[in-house]
Amino acid sequence: MNIKSICVFCGSSPGNKTTFEFSARELGLNIGLHKINLVYGGGQNGLMGTVANGALKNGGKVIGVIPRHLVEREKGHKGLTDLIVVENMYERKRKMIDLADAFVVLPGGVGTLDETFEILTYKQLGIHNKPIILLDVENYWKGFNDILNTTIHFGFTSPTIKNLYQIVFSPNEVFSFLD
Q: Sign of torsion, CA 22 82 39 35?
């Protein structure tokens, strides 16, 4: 698969471990280094801003997609290649999904989890067949796996759901997997 753009879902907060920001920065730097376009939520705060700044630092093209009502709250990044302002969260996710050839998900809050479940559901339903990679920093994705295992255990989800995404433990592994 020829990956020209990666959508990164992640927190608009930095979290409480320096390893979150380190991983976001390294991911962004690597995206820029590989000359892959970054598509993300458009904010300058938290992990969002860190990954964007990393990509920009290495000459990457960065496209932010942000709902109008979050431009102030998430501090819409003014140094991007392009900042697309949409009307609502639904349009944001739809635009980000459409612009991406692959997804990488860093730790984040309920918005990040919502985005993760949505792209996983779309892949399960055959709406897209793009790679989904969860970058597991500080064992963040253990709970996600636990929830999926519970849905499998009780017969609500097929075990094949686990084949629809990949968990990696470093930004370098993201690119090894995509290659």
A: negative
End-to-end CA distance of the chain: 8
Q: Rounded to an integer, what distance in angstroms lies between the CA atom of residue 15 and that of residue 20?
A: 7
Q: What are the φ/ψ torsions at residue 82 (nearest 5 degrees)? A: -155, 135
Indicate the residue type of 63. I
| Per-residue tokens: 15 | 């979290």
**Each residue of 29-38: pLDDT tens digit?**
999 999 999 9
Tokens of 121: 């559901």
Summarised one tens digit per residue, pLDDT across range 97-106 is: 999 999 999 9
Number of domains comprising the chain = 1
The pair phi, psi for residue 104, each rounded to 5°, is -125, 130
Q: d(Cα 104, Cα 89) in Å, to the nearest integer?
A: 19
Question: Could you tell me the residue range of the domain that residue 23 belongs to?
Answer: 5-178
C-alpha–C-alpha distance, residues 6 and 99, integer Å: 8
pLDDT band at 74 (very low <50, low <70, confident <90, very high): low
* CA distance linking residue 107 with residue 64, whole number of Å: 18
CATH number of the domain that 32 lies in?
Answer: 3.40.50.450
Q: What share of the chain is helix, strand, coil (3-state, %, to 5)?
A: 45, 20, 35
